[in-house]
Amino acid sequence: MSAETLTSYDVWRKILGGKPIDLVFPFDYSPVPSGKPGERIGARRPSGLRLYCSTEEFLWTLRNWERREPERWKGTDTLLGVTSIVGVGIAQEEEWEHVLAGGYVDYDDWLFVRDWEPKEERSLLFIDMEIPYSDKTTGMIIDKIVNMRIDGYLLRSDKAYHLISDELTRLDELPARYGKLINVFAGDEPRWQWARDIGNALINAQDKEDVKRVCNYILNRIGHYGEEGERWFLIDLRYIAHSLLEFPILRISSKEGYPIPPTLLARFKDGKVKIYFQSPAPNQSEI
Fold first, then answer.
1. pLDDT class for 285, splitting at 50, 70, 90?
2. Of all helices (H) and strands (E), which one includes residue 143?
């Protein structure tokens, strides 16, 4: 076990340093509830700057946020997030442009940006876990990820988890990738047969309309962990549905009530795992 405590900046420096990624898509946003079955509530909407930026600009901004921004933004509902969509290669680079950054980054309230255009777009795989953080749950998730032989990162986010797979995927392959991941987490347990049905539907989807039908089914029928009487799964299926209908996004900054940005629990590579230090969570619970 490593004694390091790695935050979002450290994780993203590892991800971007090990892959042919040239551009990333960060922004500040205000979260909205993802809703209960049948409620047509949208996913989290970006409210700030929405342009590709270079990996160097992104890491500089993220390090700046972790050092100074939490105090400045304390008490607000605005967070820093990043999409899973990344640019591989640069097709076009415009001249530097001087724009108002708003809350995006504290640099005299202004930010220099470029209008980047990638040669290709690829996606990382983002997963938001439903199950609450505990030592027992962490061990179960690590075992499943090792068995899946997924290369990536498991992070603690507030009282739950984020999983980031750093394998670059074509955008049209995302439904099948999500479907396979659902099936792996469902395993052979009879109680998760309905989840395997959803996973298979995503794997076998022939076009965008098929994907849309599966996502609408999830949003109309599936709830969240802890909601009385609602059907839920180990990973957040509503998050997956919103990701496929719109775009995947994960929080990478601190937030009110939890002043530490998402921190690394484990790194997975070639079927092996490195465990990182993590202090006990308050009010741990187990599934």
1. very low
2. helix 135-148
Q: What share of the chain is helix, strand, coil (3-state, %, to 5)?
A: 35, 30, 40
Q: Which amino acid is at 45?
A: R
Which residues are registered as beta bridge partners of 61?
none
Query: Which strands form 249-251's sheet, in the order they lie side by side?
Result: 45-46, 26-30, 79-83, 249-251
Q: How many domains, the chain?
A: 1
pLDDT at residue 248 tops 70? yes
CA separation for the pair 64, 253 (Å, rounded):
11
Given a cut of 50, is residue 80 above it in pLDDT?
A: yes
Q: What is the pLDDT of residues 112-123, one digit of tens each?
A: 445 567 888 899
Q: Residue 211: is its pLDDT beyond 90?
A: yes
Residue 90, domain member (yes or no): yes
Residue 3 lies in a domain: no
133: DSSP letter:
P
Mean pLDDT of 211-216: 96
Q: Whole domain around residue 131: which residue ranges?
A: 8-275
Using alpha carbons, select from 64, 61, 65, 81 the residue that is nearest to residue 73. 65
Q: What is the mean pLDDT of residues 182-192?
A: 91
Please say whether the beta carbons of 9 and 264 come within 8 A. Answer: no
DSSP string, 9-74: HHHHHHHHHSS---EE-EEEEE------TT------EE-S----EEHHHHHHHHHHHHHHHHHHTT
